């Protein structure tokens, strides 16, 4: 656990708490709503035979997580999601989730339906983990990680008249969201990756399947800075317009630590 976790917060009601839950880590970001350069981030490894037990131990070992924050956000790293039209009702979303086999038949699960502005995202997580989060962080909305990415990136499609593919690199995960020039969602997928070659393959395959033009359309990268820098020259061999995403200036009010924090937690408050 990093040192930030031990720092006390005088008035939690004036702070936002962001939680990113991944299969192996619990990432925590706290930001003051009244002070600049206030961002504090913590990462706690999750290990053991029981995911729920390791999550409970991590939360209870960090007592200030249970403070009365002014706002709490939770995003969950999962591949168990499917994107459906925004006009679809919840019953149709459940049918799509069943058809996509999002849930493990051997593990009770809970389904969520996110509004991603240009679409809906139906996703599932184990029911015991969902119940613990709901009891522990009351009234805290839970989203799939892909949801804030879609919300944030769709607002960038108005810049220019080309199609855009956004790639978010997060450790061993690659999230891809692609839009047509008029803002129509073309793809939203998550892959696990081990190498830059894996990322290159998935990005170019998604661009091809979305009908993008490698000479004129844009590929924009964000997330892990080291992986992004090593991937850009590889992509530039196959696409003419590869560039990093400009970090949102509004997020820099929290300080330079924002560059190191999980990108979905940084952009989620900007998408409200």
Your description of this structure?
The N terminus is likely disordered. Helices cover 25% and strands 29% of the residues. The protein is globular, with a radius of gyration of 19 Å. Helix 5 packs across helix 6. The chain contains 7 helices and 13 strands. The strands form 3 sheets. Strands 3-2-1-4-8 form a 5-stranded mixed sheet. A 5-stranded mixed sheet has the order 11-10-9-12-13, with helices on both faces. The protein has a 3-stranded antiparallel sheet with strand order 5-7-6. Strand 12, helix 6 and strand 13 form a beta-alpha-beta unit. With 272 residues, the protein is of the alpha/beta class.
Mean pLDDT score, rounded?
91
Number of strands: 13
Strand % is: 25-35%
Q: Give the SSE order as H and E letters.
A: EEEHEEHEEHEHEEEHEHEH
Largest sheet: 5 strands, mixed
> Could you give the order of strands across the largest sheet?
3-2-1-4-8
Calculate the terminal CA-CA distance, rounded to whole Å: 30 Å
Tell me the overall shape: globular
* Global Rg: 19 Å
Uncertain segments are 1-6
Number of helices: 7
Helix proportion range: 25-40%
Secondary structure layout plus pairing:
Blueprint lengths: L14 E7 L3 E8 L7 E6 L5 H10 L10 E6 L4 E4 L5 H10 L9 E7 L4 E7 H10 L5 E3 L1 H9 L9 E7 L2 E7 L5 E8 L3 H14 L8 E6 L1 H11 L5 E4 L18 H5 L5
Parallel strand pairs: 1-4, 4-8, 9-12, 12-13
Antiparallel strand pairs: 1-2, 2-3, 5-7, 6-7, 9-10, 10-11
